[in-house]
Structures are given as C-alpha cells and as structure tokens.
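Final report, Chapter 2: Outcomes

The project's central promise was a pipeline that accepts a single protein chain and returns its three-dimensional structure in a standardized token representation, suitable for archiving and comparison. That pipeline is now operational. To close this chapter, we reproduce one record exactly as it appears in the project archive, with the input sequence first and the structure output second.
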Amino acid sequence: MVLALSIAAIGFAIETTPAAQRWNGDLRLYHDYAAAVLRGQLDDTDYLRQYPPLALVPLLVPQIIGLGALSFPLYAALYTLLTACAAGAGLALLRRTVAGAGQLAVPPATALYAGLCLLATVVIVARFDVWPMLAVLAAMAAMSADTALVAGAALGIGFALKLYPAVLQPVVVAWFLYRGRRRCALLALLGFLAAAVLGLAPYLLVLQGAPAFVAFQLHRPMQIETLVGSLVAFAGSAGITPVQIVFGSGSFNLAGPAVDALDPWIGAFQLVVVGLGYAAAIAGMRAGRGVPRLETAWRGMLIVLLAVLLSSRVFSAQYLVWLIPLLAATMRRRWELAAAVVVLGLTAVLFPFAYEALIALQPLPVALLVARNVVLACLFAWLVVASFLGPVGRPDHHRLEVVSTPAET
C-alpha cells in the first residue's frame, strides 16, 4: 500500500511538469483507444497495427469505471492510480515468491523492487508495461509453487499483452526439464499456448489485423535509445558522422549513413546475442550440482531478456519495467544492485526531463544514454560469464544471503 501510494503521489506530481505533459502521448492514445472501443469504432484507429489485443483490457478499465465518459485528465488520474496499485500488488507477490523460493533474503529483494519501481514511476503510470510485468511475476510465483501449467499460462497472458514474455518461456520449460519434470515442462508449454491463443483471439478472428501488426513489428527503424542507436547518436553528437532524428512508428529513430551501414546487420547481431543469452541461461542451470535452483532459472530469464533489449532495434524507457522483478529476485552482489539502480536512475533523468535535449543530440544527454546502455551491457556480460563459469571459487563477501532456509526435501 505504501509503495502504491508513493508511486501515485510521485506520478501525479511529475505529470504536472511541462516535460511529462510534453511526452504523455501514449497515455492520450490509451484514452482515445478505450473511447473508440466503447463507441464501437476501434477499427477506425491504428490500435490493432501497433499493440497486441489483450493490452486493450487494462486501457479500458478506467473508461469502464467512468461509464465511458471520462475526459482525458480524469482518465489519466484513474489510470495512474490503477498502475500504482498494480506495482504495489507486484511487491506483495514478489515477497511471497522470494520467500517461497527460500534462496534470497526477502527484505533486500523487496527493497530493490520498491526502489526500482519508484525510479521508474514515470513510465509505470504513463505506459502499460506494468501489466505484462505482473504476468511475469505471476509466472515466477507459479514456478516457486511448482505449478507449471499456471507458470506457462501467465507467460502466455503476458505475451498477449506485450509479446516479450514469449522469450522467457523456453527458459521455464528448460528449468522443468533439467529438474527431470518432463510432464511439468509439457504443462508449462500447453499453458502458454492456450493462454496465448485465447489472448490473440481477436487477431485470429479478425485476420486482417494480424498482417499489419506483424509488418509493423518487423519493420521498426533503429530507435535512438537502443545500444547500437545510442552509439550512433554519440558519434553524431561528436561530429564523427551525420545523424538525423526522424519520428516514425511511435518512436524517435535515427537516420544517416551509419544507420544505413549497420541496419542490415542488426538481425544477425540480435540472433547472436539472444542465442548467447539462451546458451548462458542453460549453462547456468547445468553448472550447479544436482537439481538446479529456482534462482538459476530466474537469472536465465533475466539474461535472455537483457539480450533481447540490448540487441533490438527498439528500446523505449518503459521496457526497463520488464526487468524489475527479475532484477529484484536475482541481484545479490552489491555492485549488481548498484548497476540496477544506475540503469533505472539514468533512465529517470533522461525520460522525460532530458528527452527533448536527447533527441536534439545534445552531448550530455547522449553521453548519459550511452552510459546507461554500457552499464546494462556490462551487467549482461557479467551474468553470461558467471553462468558459464558456474559456482566456482569462494563466495563473494558482498552477497546478500538468506540466513536460514527450510530443509530441502
């Protein structure tokens, strides 16, 4: 409750600033989409081209509560409260999940979750990424409770909300397989497929929406906030190569000779990085002696998600919300905790307060963006190396360990 109230209060305060009002276009779209649904005019919008169908559900809730007649300011206020409550509910769910796993002290995990959520307040209350984040948290809780069908279904729902949870499903299946639980692995897969199909039913029933959605996702240009994009932007701000900022496909993207040269290689780059992420996730589960611990699966999920974000053409500030529960549940060394805070902290500075200067390619915000992405890349590299090396050597004295755990059976 305290976290939810804090996020709501900070959200309301920030939303009154000129910077936040300048960049709350997504929230206005949510209001318009929800109103269009209630008028039976969703086909007249571009919603089905840009968003998975199930994402419409949380966008509709404020309008339903307001009987379909909410002005934008009232809609924004109610949506802020709902997303703040969702983040607060995530804290309670994380506390139970980590306690059930018995592998991390609960206070550090919940403190990190709360701190990262507070840093991400702007994108939590003005975007809808907190909802798929809750789906991933539900999958983590189901893994802790050893309910494979629910774990898969939670990720399937998350996929129908935001797509990205689909990349976590292979790690969940692999974790059950490495524990010798083939039936559970199958149930996790079936749960995912059933929930995903139900969530994507509007595309299956209205087939004309699916091709446009797939084309939109596959042909996104290089966004400035991506790892590669930030390096190109840095080169542009330093006068090394000409770079232009072009708005399109709902994001600020880069154009210029460097982008033209790099763009054909982005797909191969992502294939290599994501493949390395999956290999590291599997190596981490195999490295321990005996049955892999649940924490290794969560770290594997984090590694894969980092691989996707760092190698993608698209990387918006709100995508970091996806990482929060996995960071909170797995970051154990103090420098890892510091890296997580730095990444979210720099993002909070850049968006929305320095975003105008960022897309103007001013040196300082571009340097901050590069620093954010470099820290994130270093964290990914460390997790990959640690997964392949396994639990060797003496434990780090900076690790935050649970004092006592229940006896394993």
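Archive annotation: The longest strand covers residues 244-248.
This record, like all others produced under the grant, will remain available to the consortium after the project formally closes.
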